[in-house]
Amino acid sequence: MENLMSSFSLVSKMATDDYVGFTFFVGSMAMMAASAFFFLSMNDFDRKWKTSILISGIITFIAAVHYFYMRDYWEAIGESPTFFRYVDWTLTVPLMCVEFYLILKVAGAKQSLMWKLILASVVMLVTGYAGEAIFTTGTGPALWGFFSGVAYFYIVYEIWFGSARKLAEKAGGAVLKAHKTLCWFVLVGWAIYPLGYMAGTPGWYDGIAGLGLNMDVIYNIGDAINKIGFGLVVYAAAVASKSENKKVATA
Questions:
Q1: pLDDT digits (tens, 9 = 90+) for 172-210
Q2: 128 near 144, Cβ under 8 Å?
Q3: How far apart are the C-alpha atoms of 99 and 93, rounded to whole Å?
Q4: Which of 65, 164, 189, 239 has the most other CB atoms within 10 Å of its CB?
Q5: What top-level class would CATH report for the domain 2-242?
Q6: Higher per-residue confidence, 207 vs 81
């Protein structure tokens, strides 16, 4: 109760032009609401989709909890909570990769696919953190950002053109549609993070910071769209699959 009252106090002191604090607040509320929705809807589906819906809820729940902490950190110190943000991503981004494996299991996806995507996501995050928080001078941010980008594009290649794509085409129907949408989230939605990285670190791309982009606002908006969006795509696929099964049963 004390923490809740403290949160209300922080909100009441938030400046009207504090867009970072505002997006932290809205993001935490939106992702907690999404978690409740996913958890409560789990029992509407069979075992094949129940785990995927559960993972979606866990992703948004972890993010919501971290956002409560990051919002308080921002309000108290006024600095970007880089460490806490990467802790959040290290937990949630690999789980988002797990979603690809779970929806493709129906087409015979092996655990090796899941571990490849998880490993690439961890490399992407660890090297990104190194460039943003450890090696922050000289060519450090650009060099570590390059390694992070390589890992990111490996994930993009694997889901768009690699074995994951072939498995999705084999499954067809709701699975293929969900896979395509999740691929677009990774290609377009996840591209927000490199923009935020470049806006907050020195390098040949210094001009991006001059556009008035705020790293935390970019990340907060990107997190809300990508994490909640991922879950909604999986939920829509589960609904579509349930409808397809009913049609087959009544045919």
A1: 988 999 999 999 999 998 988 887 787 777 776 666 555
A2: yes
A3: 10
A4: 164
A5: mainly alpha
A6: 81
At 249 the pLDDT is 58
Residues in the chain: 251
Residues 6+ apart with CB under 8 A from 16: none
Distance of CA 22 to the CA centre of its chain: 19
Residue 156 C-alpha from the chain's centroid: 14
H-helix or E-strand containing 156? Answer: helix 140-160
Tokens of 228: 């909640």
Token pair 């084999």 in the structure block, residue: 170
Position of tokens 């129940």?
Answer: 50
| Residue 144 φ/ψ, nearest 5 degrees | -70, -30
Radius of gyration over alpha carbons of the chain, in Å? 19
CB neighbour list of residue 13: distance below 8 Å, 6 or more residues apart: 75
pTM above the 0.85 mark? yes
Distance, CA of 216 to CA of 14 (rounded, Å): 16
pLDDT in tens, 108-166: 899 999 999 999 999 999 999 999 899 988 888 899 999 999 999 999 999 999 999 99
User: Could you tell me the CA-to-CA distances from 79 to 57, 169, 222 in Å, in that order?
Assistant: 29, 45, 19
